[in-house]
Fold these 2 entries.
Entry 1:
Amino acid sequence: MFMTPIPWQMRLFRAATFRLAILFALAVTASTSIVFFFVYLHVSVYDDKQVRSHLIAETADAAIEPMERIRGEFERRLASDLRIVDYAGFYAKDGTLIAGNLPAPPPGLVIDGQAYQLDSPLADADGYTRDPALFVGRRRADGTTVILGRSLYEIHALRRIVSRALLIGVVPTILLTLVIGTFFSLRSARRLQSINQRVNRIMQGHLNERLPTRSGGDDIDHVAHAVNLMLDEIVRLVSQIKDVGDNIAHDLRTPLAIMRARLERGLCSESDYGVRESVHQALRDLDRALMTITTLLRMSEIENGPLRRSFGTVDLCEVCSQIFELYEPLAETKAITLYLISSPPMPMIGDFQLLIEMVANLVDNAIKFTPQGGIVTLGAFASPHGPGLRITDTGPGIPAKEREDIFKRFYRHDRSRHDAGSGLGLSMVAVIAELHGYGFRVGDNRPGAIFEFLPKGLSGQASRT
Amino acid sequence: MKLDQEILQDIEPPAHSMHASSFQSQEEDSSALPTSRQASKGIPLLLVEDEAGMAAEIAAELSDLGYQVQIERTGPAGLAAARSQAFSLLIIDRMLPETDGLTLIEILRQENILIPVLVVSALSSVDEKIRGLKAGGDDYLTKPFAMGELAARVEALLRRPADLRSSILRVGPLEMDLIERSVRRDNRLLDLLPREFKLLEYLMRRPGQTVTRAMLLEDVWNYNFLPQTNLVDVHIGKLRKKIDQPGSPPLIESVRGAGFRLRA
């Protein structure tokens, strides 16, 4: 029921543009009507008023003029009135017509000098004079009566013309607006429909589909373009997540597979000691896997969390000497000489715990990859753009083409090497550096590697982390 | 006396420090039992944990060590139990149905119930730990953890460090003078580096008590991360070489799956 196709008439009515067209038609009609209404008002009221006051004044004049002048005036007036819109009557005391074209006073007219609208007493054959007329009657001092009148035919004709014009004007306006509205709404409905179809395909998982855009660049194109950019970003993120997911799966699968094999072998073991040993080793593998998860979570916490942790002044020189003290015994057990390159205090703004962790990871790595009898150095130094750190070793070094990749997640410098790390140490280092606005420059120590922790952006030399 | 205070400030009791989770098991050279069963005989503990499997495992481990564990599954039930009975320690999961773990601790603290609390949580961020400790928790352990780590933390909370004011510490043949900053074994002066001195002091304040690598890194070095290599073991190894005598058994024992213990 929910998905039954909607008939096109309904679809049309639902389309926003069509509704807009109807609204527009209504607005046009309303404003036209208002204009016409004012014209009409002017014609009917203003003209009517003028005729009235004119008649009243003329009648008042006639009432005081000598009888002979009235007769002459009336004749002149009626002679020039070719359209028969004027009425005049001059009556004796007994009501007989002395002059004019009204045989008798119109019935219902009150003789008080005021204007009254009455039906015309003169009916023509063609009926035009049936239009109402205004009459003013006044009694003279000698007992005679003057009545003047004017047909409202002209005014009424004008009214008729105005209202007809209104009808003739408004109806086509409405129709035209509706037609144009329908045209545009059908046009945009077609575009929206095609966009909708693409969106449906994208929702079904075809992430490579894009919304159609035209070169014109109207509003819909802008939105479609923005959506396309958003889709590009989503595709990039999804593939990144997938990569990381694949890496996690791979990195967890290896220890889990080894663990499984060990437990299986342990179960078959004849001796109690064998079982215990395999369980112990399996536990160690499990710890490694859990460590990987914890490290990934910590990295995303540092990367995505707001900078809530306390940034303060950290002396890189102090960081180095603490790490030296922490790692010196370890280097000694591997017969590696760890040197602390002394420097004046190198204060920078940062998170002490995270910087300690970062340098620990780097020194840990350096010691791990340096053979017996090798040398590892660490120390702070003043770079032209701010305090920096330098860690060198005499290990196998890092080939130039790998220097960018080593900071990526799960990248193993040398996959054949069976190191116990999670493969995330340098990624963590990169995340911490990024948080501080720093980057790394990796160089050749001939033999060995040089890691330089430098302010990013300013130098432009520090490699991307 | 001033010197003494400085040293004391340097070494924080575990109650107020942050703890990273530890599930690293390392090579052990001896396999002493994690905790003496006799010492913890019948100590009543309350465990408030909604995950049945996790609760059963923790309870089994602690019962094996001789503790008497009562399990509650919800916040209100835990609160009721903590109010009605005298427990020596509470282990509270951070996320509980009905009443949240931190809220539970806050209510208890408001009611002046000051039993030590170990917060156990799947939330590992530094901010979460700070929140847990601020709410009144005494220690914070992140899941997943090694059972040895849990046992050591429980023991540490139950046995607060010995008298902090005394300036001479004596454990077995060892004697540490905190004012002179000297250590003697059977009246023979030992030559220790400052860090080794601090490490030994931490152990001597907790004789016979298991301390984990994470506890040492947090409390002795003040770091809240775990290095990937066996750093702590190397430091302990160096210390052992200086305090042990050929022929006699090592004073610092390794505790399998947990950490180290200074023989009392």
Entry 2:
Amino acid sequence: MFQQVDFSALDLPPSARALQLEVRAFLRAEMAAGTFEVHLGHTEFNAALSKKIGARGWIGMTWPKRYGGQERSYLDRFVMTEEMLAVAAPCAAHWFGDRQTGPSLLRYGSETQRQRFLPAIARGEFAFALGMSEPNAGSDLAAVKTRAERVDGGWKINGQKVWTSWGHKADAFFVLCRTAPDSGNRHDGLSQLIVELKQPGVTVRPIYFMDGGHHFNEIFFDDVFVPDDMVVGDIGAGWRQITSELALERSGPERYMTTFPLFVELVRRLGKSPDARAAEMIGRLTAGIWSLRRMSLAIAMTLDPGPGAEFGTPKATVDLATEAALVKDLGTFYEREIIDAARLLSDVEPEHGAKNLFERFLAESIVAAPVSTLRGGTTQVLRGLIARKLLGRLK
Amino acid sequence: MSDATEIRNMLVDAATRVFADHVDAKLLDAAKRDGWSADLWRIVSDAQLPLIGIAEEKGGSGGSLSDQAAVLRIAARYAAPIPLAETALAAWLLTEAGLPLIDGPLTIAPVRGETIQAKRDGASWRLTGRVSRVPFARACRRLVVLATATEGLLVATVDPAQCKITAGSNLAFESRDAVDLDNAPAENAALTTAVTPATLRLRGALARALQIAGALEAALELSVRYAGERVQFGRKIAEFQAIQHELARFAGETAAAVGASMSAAGVLERGGDAHLAVASAKIRCSRAAQEGSMIAHQVHGAIGFTDRYALHHATLRLWAWREEFGNEAMWAEALGRSMAAAGADGLWPALTGN
């Protein structure tokens, strides 16, 4: 693993260092102005903040300028992402566009789609969601049953998606569906379609989280028409398209930082001269995030296409999918170590919506803890994937 | 590919060949008895590996600290029973103090927080103190000590023949000896402000972190290979999902150890926050040593814990090295104190500072 990576050479370039301070100052000012309230567990949807971030050129920042991007490096994007996560700034209104649909459109989208969506995503004015899972297709995504039938000028969709985060606020979503019957190879016959959410035939229903919060939705299609120009890439190539760009997405700071603000509040609570037990815990947590950050940075740095290449598209010659799975597996368990340390060192009986920031973060982190090892590949799926790579060398 | 990367790759290939060609079961068994391998030292020394990372104008073989880190990691992958890390540490003490390099094998003292007192004796110095667990003291040509004088800190070289050495060993049967200096004459000495017991300990911890990473790589490779060969219930055990998931976790621990230790070498080289980096590396690597060694043995079954099978050369070292130059609890407490002192709002800037 990580054979292509020289960890000793990992260092942020000056551009990323400058950006780090810039983003930090921006977020500090926004928090001081009370623009957003911080919640842990599920990133919040704040369209106004995403527009401000877009106006600063911090969404789609690795994309080509002709599509509203800034042609900056993956490390700049890495820094931007981790600064947002460090204070749990709400980013759901641009997150999926910036991280998934934007890069997919850059790689597989038509020129019309790119012109139409990318600049709007980059401005923070168009929010995408993801339509992948279905009631009977979770980890086994190829089992999707939502069907698109050929009709004059496009496709007609029927079926159901589930667990769509922020589907009730987003403008459109990428829908993985079956455009040809299962003919034996279940990865064939799948396609990706862009479906606008606010149109007849699309019904969005909330699925409330166990603490009462509304992040997830189920979405029903009843004869929804999608014109031909909203097909992403090739009909039948959906599987290849969704599985080809997992490395960056799987290994980002969001895989180990979702409880980080709780760590900060824990340190605040313990004070500047903690006892030996607390100090040891802080030290272990520090070592954990420091090490994970190096691994995550290593992947971003190695996949960075570098100047002159096609911006926004990872270097094609390196395959870090297994390394990315490792980072996610380690990262999601690290997040729980923070929760446990906070619990054990604080003697707080957590309460939903507590006034005290530490106590609220603790409650939110505890109930959200099961989510991180499920979304984006369960622990078990990831370990299977890692093992296949390890053992593949034997054959 | 940059020049530095290309040079590194050549160095790594060359070092790998040296160890792969010369470290075998017979050599490792003999080293368990002797506390080290003089034969291997000669070969590695001829290949000019011990002084990688020390500038050529100072008498070293050139290359960066990260190059040295890469060599230490590879040597550990082969369980090379020689004072490679110790010689590098000694060379660092000597060059920082402005003293000439000497041929190895070398070692350093003290390593466990004890004090060696230095007193002037005319133009020269004499050294007194009892220090424990000195790595390869029996084997070294000279000890390089960091002693305390009324004038300040002193780096001095001592002939081991001038000391009383009582053999001891770590769990891997590597020499860890008690050294008694009783008014022992220093051969060469210089007062210095360039090194301290704390920076020596830091470098020592980094070396052990890198070695842990290398030993974990070896144990992982053995485990993966064994799982692909061993048949139980009519199948290779690698075909069982339970085994696969353990191996995947092992790969994660190993990658974390490699990433943390090699990163820390880079941070030290670039002059970043060395305490954060090295403490993190030692904490993370020591934890990985525990997780990884247990999985390795579980996958291997009973054959893994015998002295006939290679795994124990790696796991005994993991269990020894995680304690040396401070275990994870000691480093975590120190790191935690410094992070807490910087305050909650200093935590993130500190983490992202290098």
